[in-house]
Design a protein that fits this description.
The complex is a heterodimer. Chain A is mostly helical. Chain A has helices at residues 6-18, 20-26, 46-61, 75-83, 94-101, 110-116, 139-145, 165-169, 174-181, 192-201, 215-218, 246-253, 261-272, 278-286, 300-333, 337-352, 355-366, 370-394, 398-406, 411-441, 454-463, 466-495; strands at residues 37-43, 65-72, 89-93, 121-123, 133-138, 161-164, 187-190, 207-210, 221-224, 236-241. The longest helix of chain A is centred in the middle third of the chain and has 34 residues, at 300-333. The N and C termini of chain A lie far apart (58 Å). Classes of the chains: A mainly alpha, B alpha/beta.
Chain lengths: 496, 243
């Protein structure tokens, strides 16, 4: 669990290498006295949401206000946001910290990780569970065959061993495991999403899983002990910025050692299989500890309204900027074919950066939240606007331009009365394209904590919850269609 | 007799190709001068030098005795009307907006603009209901008349006409000739007409210039030129177009 996007990681690493000066210039001095509003982040899978919600409610119960920056698109986005003080805390796993972030050799313990951590960060006490790879069998099979540890598989070659493709590929996956335990059975690959059902139906005997998956509870599976400590440890703990008030850190210490593997499995199952909200599961978990956060009370409709408004805000600001700057630049450069094609080429290049990567690139410069999202959407909107405007302005019928010139129109008047009005339909078409692209792309802004209709989509994806996904996807699609229609109407008006 | 336009020792090169050389021309004021030549003869280039859209590489041009200014070229151009083939009306403006644009930019008041527009419509024999139509809603002949109105809006003393009659059908063309002659009288304007059609030149111009490959072949009163071709080229041109 808790793996990073490999491509994203590479881009971020390079980018972070070339922008440290920028990043430092951007970091504003933080106020060290106790702040009342804390920002909690999470990655975009359900366990991370749930643990973040538990942190949030714990802090709220202690009198803090919490801004939830949940569903950030991956390990490095969270980590970078924390380093920059964009968020105050999120839950990280020791294995992820050691391997993906700090690049420590072997299987470092908490003390080694703490020593290697950036001085701005602190790893608080672990929750207790270890969310690592697990080799699982059905409980009754384990009982019948007396299977307790991975080593016990050695005499059971008749058990059909089928693992996820990733597990078979990874260096720290099956090959190492087989070598460590001396397993010789033949294995096959399966799509991870199908493995649990296949195991439950008895069509396969053994598979890999994550040790805190809710499925382990649901299908009554037994985890075989990794007695030789082959798998790296993924103990979860709050990773916090040292600017977080000491009192807040103290509150979080109460969570130390409170969640073991079984408990985490059960909590995950509540969300994944019983469809409970993160907030409800967190509340239920904290109540026996006497931690009760004031109830916020949101409904689907208020969420929808907030998300839609935020979505419109993101795309509106970005589009407005792109129109103003795009048209301004177009008017400046359309006469110079060399400069024009240079600019169009550059914007085209920006367009080829995958959206999620472009969003990630914004983080070292602008942190997380609305600003980087607006900048990214702005960059995406620029190409269609610039290309259409420059092309249209430069390609107005030369006869008409010559006539305008011969009639004694100044360059300004030629622009105002001839070039611009004749280019308007094309310019408008560019804006229309940009608007629709923006609305679509803005759903990804949720990955960097900008909110919008991408929020329910991101949560829904991590939970495999179609209903939640649709709560974001349908309004986003409707918004795109409405925008198309609105622009179509305006365009017809324009043509009169 | 004074001249509306004089070309002295004009030469022009485009991308290494000599398009005009050693042009010396005097176009009499108050008359229509036709510059006749095949495509590529340099006739349009010559015309576009009169309002400074193109500049000669060498030589001088005088319009009513004045050289073409380097500064304030817009004001200078507004004193010269310009009409082109297919009228070149701005497609996004109504007939009225097309014709009156420059007057409005000049700061004429509404009444003056409206009065002049009405006067011009009458001169070119167009009904008032064309005023609000877009160019694409008008016939070719109507568009061409509006092009003429636009060229005349500011009461210029000189008109530059770049094949304005060539893109309409023969019947309409004859009507346009008549209108043009009437308007020219009414407005008392001198004209430079570029055309490839010698018949048109004979019909409309008192003064004729034959241009071939960037060189003036012959110039003089129309009747003289047509009656006494001085070169084989002019002779063949006359023979092919007029007989």
């Amino acid at each position: 669990m808790a793996k990073a996007y490999p491509g994203l990681t590479a881009i971020l690493v390079i980018w972070m290498g070339i922008t440290p000066l920028f990043a430092q210039a951007q970091t504003s001095p933080q106020i060290t006295q106790e702040r009342n509003v804390l920002r909690i982040g999470s990655k975009n899978f359900n366990e991370s949401y749930l643990l973040a919600e538990i942190l949030a409610q714990t802090l709220e119960a202690g009198g803090f206000e919490v801004e939830r920056k949940f569903g950030l698109g991956g390990t490095l986005i969270c980590y970078e946001a924390l380093l920059k003080g964009e968020i105050d805390a999120y839950v990280e796993y020791t294995g992820t910290l050691g391997q993906a972030i700090l690049k420590l050799p072997g299987n470092p313990d908490t003390a080694a990780i703490s020593r290697a951590l950036d001085e701005r960060l602190m790893l608080l006490d672990q929750f207790g569970f270890n969310n690592t790879y697990a080799i699982v069998v059905k409980a009754e099979v384990a009982r019948q065959r007396g299977l307790r540890s991975v080593a016990d598989l050695a005499g059971n070659d008749d058990l059909d061993m089928v693992f996820s493709h990733e597990f078979l590929e990874r260096e720290d996956g099956w090959r190492g495991l087989a070598a460590t335990y001396g397993l010789t059975a033949g294995v096959r690959g399966i799509e991870h999403g199908l493995a649990y059902q296949a195991l439950n139906a008895g069509s396969i005997g053994v598979t890999d899983a994550y040790s805190t998956d809710g499925e382990l509870v649901r299908y009554n599976l037994t985890v075989l002990d990794d007695t030789l400590n082959y798998f790296p440890s993924y103990y979860a703990a709050p990773l916090v910025h040292h600017n977080m008030p000491a009192r807040a850190r103290g509150l979080l210490k109460r969570l130390a050692g409170q969640i073991d593997d079984k408990r985490m499995q059960a909590l995950n199952a509540r969300v994944v299989f019983e469809g409970q909200s993160f907030a409800a599961v967190a509340r239920e978990f904290l109540a026996p500890m006497g931690i009760v956060a004031p109830q916020a009370g949101t409904s689907m409709w208020t969420d929808l309204r907030t998300n839609t408004l935020r979505h419109l805000q993101l795309t509106g600001i970005a589009l407005g900027l792109a129109i103003v700057l795009g048209l301004g630049i177009s008017l400046l450069v359309y006469r110079h074919p060399g400069v024009s094609s240079g600019i169009i080429y550059f914007c085209g290049l920006l367009q080829t950066i995958p959206s999620i990567a472009l969003l990630a690139l914004m983080i070292p410069l602008f942190g997380i939240g609305m600003l980087p999202a607006v900048v990214a959407l702005f960059l995406y909107s620029l190409l269609p606007i610039l290309r259409n405007a420059i092309t249209a302005l430069a390609n107005v019928d030369p006869v008409l331009v010559r006539v305008a010139e011969a009639l004694g129109l100044s360059e300004m008047d030629q622009l105002r009365h001839v070039r611009v009005p004749l280019s308007l339909p094309a310019i408008f078409a560019g804006v229309r394209t940009a608007a629709v692209i923006s609305i679509g792309t803005a759903t990804l802004a949720a990955f960097i904590g900008a909110g919008g209709l991408g929020d329910p989509i991101v949560v829904g994806l991590s939970l495999d919850n179609v209903e939640l996904i649709l709560q974001g996807a349908i309004p986003a699609a409707l918004l795109a269609i409405a925008t198309e229609m609105l622009f179509g109407l305006l365009e017809r008006r324009l043509r009169r | 007799m004074s001249n509306c336009v004089e070309f002295r020792q004009i030469a022009k090169t485009f991308e290494g190709r000599q398009v005009l050389q050693d042009i010396n021309l005097s176009c009499p004021a108050g008359a229509t001068t036709a510059i006749v030549g095949a495509s590529g003869s340099g006739k349009t280039t010559l015309l576009q030098m009169v309002n400074g859209v193109l500049r000669p590489d060498a030589g001088d041009i005088f319009v009513f005795g004045q050289p073409i200014p380097g500064q304030g070229i817009e004001k200078f151009r507004r004193g010269i009307g310009y009409a082109v083939q297919s009228a070149g009306l701005f497609p996004h403006m109504s007939a009225e907006q097309n014709v009156t644009l420059v007057a409005r930019l000049e700061g004429w008041d509404q009444d003056r603009v409206a009065a002049r527009f009405a006067e011009l419509l009458e001169e070119v024999d167009l009904p008032g209901d064309v005023a609000q139509r877009l160019p694409r809603e008008l016939s070719g002949g109507q568009q061409q008349r509006l092009g003429l109105c636009r060229a005349l809006m500011l009461r210029p003393r000189l008109l530059l006409l770049d094949e304005p009659f060539s893109a309409v059908d023969p019947i309409t063309r004859v009507e346009l000739y008549e209108r043009f002659e009437y308007v020219k009288q009414a407005e008392g304007v001198s004209a430079l007409l570029v055309t490839h059609d010698l018949r048109e030149a004979r019909r409309l111009a008192e003064y004729l210039v034959i241009l071939h490959a960037g060189v003036v072949q012959q110039q003089g009163p129309t009747r003289d030129v047509l009656g006494n071709p001085e070169s084989a080229y002019v002779e063949s041109l006359v023979a092919s177009q007029l007989d």
